[in-house]
Amino acid sequence: TETLRSLAEKNGIYVGAAVNVEALGKDERYSKILAKEFSLITPENSMKFNVIHPDRGRYDFSQADALVDFAERYGMKVNGHVLVWDQQLPDWLTKNHFTKEELKAILHDHIRSVVSRYRGKVWSWDVAAEAVGGDGKLRDTFWSRGIGADYLELAFRWVHEADPEAHLRYNDYGGEDMGPKSQGIYDLVARLRRKGVPIDGVGLQMHVELGNFPNEQDVRRNMERLAAIGLDSHITEMDVSLPMPATADDFRAQARVYLNMLQACLLASRCRSFSTWGVTDRYSWIPESFPGLGDALLFDQDYQPKSAYFSICSLLRDN
Ligand code: G3I
């Protein structure tokens, strides 16, 4: 039977979702839809530093293992998320003082341990996320302060050492279309490429709202300039928040936004995956983080496919 997953495959792209490991463990409807409709899993939180490396020298791979096993069982790819990020860092790391050399050793060990464990099982890694500011300049982060400006370059090289086959990506939000932020991201990854740093792609997160979403042509143009320097692009965390309670018109407008962004990906020469930041409106970060907004995904609270689901399926079918 025809599913989002099978239609995406015909178009040569992966269709993914961020996975909430608790929902996966307790709700059979969740695991069924995930395996049936999606071909790529991004752990929503399970591979983040504070979860996978909770104490100095102690790793906890239990959640990540469960997700990687699930993906293997259902023939899905895994996108590892995320190695170098300024959030969800454990207290042992942020509340102690480390010298530059110590921090380098900690990050190197972290990357080596996590990446080598999943070598051959993780298709792509979000090596670094959200390192560029709205003005396009490199942000001041825990890692940049502690290690220095070359922390990104080092991280990509360490990941590549631990798994030479994995696709390495830089992932950010707000840099989807053309503007100062996407220019800054472009300049960063172009600089890395010129230096021979192993980087394969850029993730455009695509957390958007009805009144505020990028222009389709500009998203495509952005993807094409990345392709021109040999980089793949990915839509990595899409959701389209609606004002709650949402109306029928809102759902239709939401479907158009999903359709336009998928269209940009399909028309671009090197866009390889399209992922949403969750599976169902029952479990989504939006209502907690933005009270009054929600219903941002492809399946509703009762796991029913929404207009957005049907419109992206028909685009994939007719493309
Ligand atoms: O697991 C703990 C739980 O033990 C504790 O009782 C509870 C109390 O607050 O917190 C739980 O952790 C929460 C975690 O999600 C798991 O539910 C954290 O507080 C909460 O901050 C965390 O939020 C995540 C957020 O990243 C962290 O900044 C969201 O689920 C996750 O969707 C979101 O994902 C990010 C991407 O990684 C990067 N791009 C943006 C995207 C949206 O913010």
Quantity of strands, as a count: 10
Distance, first to last CA = 18 Å
Ligand kinds: ligand G3I
Residue ranges: pLDDT <50 for 5 or more in a row? none
Approximate shape: globular
Q: What order do the helices and strands follow?
A: HEHHEHHEHHEHHEHEEHEHEHEH
How would you state the average pLDDT, rounded? 98
Summarize the structure.
The chain has 14 helices and ten strands.
Descriptive notes:
- By secondary structure, this protein is an alpha/beta fold.
- It has a single domain (4-318), classed as Glycosidases (TIM Barrel, Alpha-Beta Barrel).
- Helices cover 45% and strands 18% of the residues.
- It has 14 helices and ten strands.
- It has helices at residues 4-10, 21-26, 28-37, 49-52, 62-73, 91-94, 100-117, 142-147, 151-162, 180-194, 216-228, 248-267, 286-289, 307-318, and strands at residues 14-19, 40-43, 77-84, 124-129, 167-172, 201-204, 207-209, 232-243, 271-276, 293-294.
- Strands 1-2-3-4-5-6-8-9 form an eight-stranded parallel beta barrel, surrounded by six helices.
- α12 (248-267) links the parallel β8 and β9.
- The longest helix is centred in the C-terminal third of the chain and has 20 residues, at 248-267.
- The mean pLDDT is 98.
- Bound molecules: ligand G3I.
